[in-house]
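Handout, section 4.2: multi-component inputs.
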Amino acid sequence: AQSVTQLDSHVSVSEGTPVLLRCNYSSSYSPSLFWYVQHPNKGLQLLLKYTSAATLVKGINGFEAEFKKSETSFHLTKPSAHMSDAAEYFCVVSEESTDKLIFGTGTRLQVFP
Amino acid sequence: DGGITQSPKYLFRKEGQNVTLSCEQNLNHDAMYWYRQDPGQGLRLIYYSQIVNDFQKGDIAEGYSVSREKKESFPLTVTSAQKNPTAFYLCASSIIYRDYEQYFGPGTRLTVT
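Output:
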């Protein structure tokens, strides 16, 4: 069965410093992987997705993630945090043979001035 | 504007009352989904539908019901049998047999007292 683990429930950074949000997945096949962002009381917005093309995936707002099969990881990074990046981030894996998604429990990113 | 609309944004009900949450999409997507979000638990799938007049239970369907009479609409009813209905409810849609990306509505926050 597929699963996804977000290794940090909270991450705090200073504005202008790098962001790293960690995600490990478990899957017996080659999954699709996603990062979604959610601002308070809003819906989820897709940041980026991996679907077995390039292993380094670039997303919106300067975020990127690297698919590492050997480490079963899909960590999200950004070189320089902005105050507007403060939100909840979800790592998501597709379920085999269905159109369902499996969500991690989320990482709350705080950005300090 | 193409997208998913959910109404209302905030909903208050007394315990023991059924309540219906609206979800409409004009993206011409085949599949639609309902999720429940509680703090620290990520998103959990309630029901999903891949075609009109057909739907399947997700992981936490007890106490909920849905209908899919039109491709554009997927209303969710929270019944009095749902023991802890206060939560944030998110609707999503997707094109099936593609890369599994789901598009989310803005959510409805339901409070039952």
